[in-house]
Specification:
Blueprint lengths: L7 H19 L5 E3 L6 H5 L32 H11 L6 E3 L4 H14 L15 E6 L3 H9 L3 E8 L2 E2 L1 H8 L5 E6 L13 H8 L9 E5 L18 H7 L6 E6 L11 E4 L2 H14 L5 H11 L2 H31 L3 E3 L8 E5 L4 H10 L2 E3 L16 E4 L6 H24 L1
Parallel strand pairs: 1-12, 3-4, 3-6, 6-7, 7-8
Antiparallel strand pairs: 2-9, 4-5, 8-9, 10-11, 11-13
The structure holds pyridoxal-5'-phosphate (PLP).
């Protein structure tokens, strides 16, 4: 029976029973962390072999004879560019290989736009108030970058097929203060949505009022399917922008963080020749070059896209049951009519939607008994979820047993929060 169909007396009886269960959980002094989308240690074990592919000094010589122990090669080893180009179906000359973090690359590009400007335009810092569109729910660390520079963030509803493009177009095509949009086009963080072909084409067809507007296309989950027989596939934004006659509209980012060791991956930027020249010019001041030894380790470990695919299938085999565990536990919330959730085919997260006004309370109840969730609201600019109904769920890091316990606790807390709201 749904909570909304219960009488006050029934709701109170339910609350009493759940509070008794809650007190028992409290006595267990749990310490579980479901707050961040980190791979579990079983996943990390899959990449252990990457650390032993380079043994001798001869191993450290690249295909074209570069001694990777030394300085040089700003934009990455040709074989690493080839691997990324194959992964995202781009041309090698469109690929810039960065350091260990794509988030860092995004920050650098935005900071450079702020300081120097994009492709000869005035620096963003000298253009008065500038704004970014932020599909929500979205990635909290994207929002942190724009917030840190005082860039005003405008939330845009993210639907199962991508951002609401009517709203995006009306902002971007009319307002020159709109300089960017954050996009995680495949298995978005956190809802796990992938953009439809129509949305990708409408993105590529944007005609921005600002010449220095760019789409920040963070393709972080490019190959992170839960099932390689049944997965999402998005259109290639670089191709679509070219076809639409707007090759410079987009910066695409990928990284191997969640293929190998986060913090020890390789990041890449894929973009047009014009943007590439602009970025290289500035990067040339910032660094002599990134970590080529790491790039070489990647290439020798994966060899090619097929190598990445077979590796990611092993990740999927570990992660998939964890998502399934969560969905099983959540089913009771659906039966009670007090929550809905997303069921992505890949990525690292899913979204749980509680009754309006119940997300913060649910997370607080969890915290009180030792289960840490991503702070409710974190997936919205400035940490403000206007409906206070969204919780980001990150299934990968806890062990299977820990995950089951955490889900049991979360379900009880979501029920208690809903009961409090309904009885109020
Ligand atoms: C959408 C998205 N982009 C970027 C990152 C971080 O990537 P990197 O480790 O390459 O900085 C994450 C990590 O959770 C993410 O979810």
């Amino acid at each position: 029976m749904k909570y909304t169909e219960m009488s006050k007396a029934q709701l109170e009886a339910e609350q009493k029973e759940l509070l008794a269960q809650y007190e028992k959980i409290k006595a267990q002094h749990l310490k579980l962390d479901m707050s961040r989308g980190k791979p579990g240690s079983e996943q990390l074990d899959l990449s252990q072999g990457m650390l032993t592919v380079l043994k001798t000094k001869e191993d450290l010589i690249s295909e074209s004879g570069i001694d990777c122990r030394n300085y040089g090669v700003l934009d990455g080893l040709p074989e690493m560019k080839r691997l990324i180009a194959e992964l995202v179906q781009a041309k090698e000359e469109q690929v810039f290989i960065g350091g260990n973090s794509s988030l860092n690359l995004m920050y650098t590009i935005i900071a450079n736009a702020w300081i120097y400007g994009i492709c000869g335009e005035k620096p963003w810092s000298q253009q008065g108030e500038i704004q970014f569109l932020c599909p929500v729910p979205g990635y909290d660390r994207h929002f942190k970058i724009t917030e840190s520079l005082g860039i005003r963030m405008i939330p845009i509803p993210l639907r199962p097929d991508g951002p609401d493009m009517d709203i995006v177009e009306s902002y971007v095509n009319q307002d020159p203060s709109i300089k960017g949009i954050w996009c995680v086009p495949q298995y978005s963080n956190p809802a796990g949505y992938s953009y439809s072909d129509q949305v990708v084409r409408r993105m590529a067809a944007l005609t921005p009022a600002a010449p220095d507007f760019r789409i920040f296309w963070d393709n972080a989950y490019v190959i992170h399917h839960l099932d390689f027989e049944d997965h999402d596939a998005i259109l290639n934004i670089i191709d679509e922008c070219e076809k639409a006659g707007h090759p410079d509209l987009v910066y695409e980012f990928v990284s191997t963080s969640k293929m190998v060791f986060p913090g020890n991956g390789v990041s890449a930027l894929i973009t047009s020749t014009t943007n590439m020249a602009d970025i290289k010019r500035i990067m040339d001041t910032e660094t002599i070059g990134f970590d080529k030894i790491n790039q070489l380790q990647h290439v020798r470990f994966f060899h090619d896209k097929a190598g990445i695919v077979s590796h990611m299938k092993q990740h999927a085999a570990i992660i998939r049951p964890r998502f399934e565990t969560i969905w099983q536990h959540f089913s009771v919330l659906g039966e009670l009519g007090i929550a809905s959730w997303t069921t992505p085919k890949g990525g690292y997260f899913l979204s749980l939607y509680t009754l309006p006004g119940c997300a913060k309370r649910t997370a607080a109840l969890c915290k009180e008994v030792g289960v840490i969730l991503t702070p409710a609201g974190a997936s919205y600019p400035y940490g403000k979820d206007p409906e206070d109904h969204h919780i980001r769920i990150a299934p990968t890091y806890p062990s299977t047993e820990e995950l089951k316990t955490a889900c049991q606790v979360l379900v009880i807390c979501a029920r208690l929060a809903a009961l409090e709201a309904l009885l109020r």
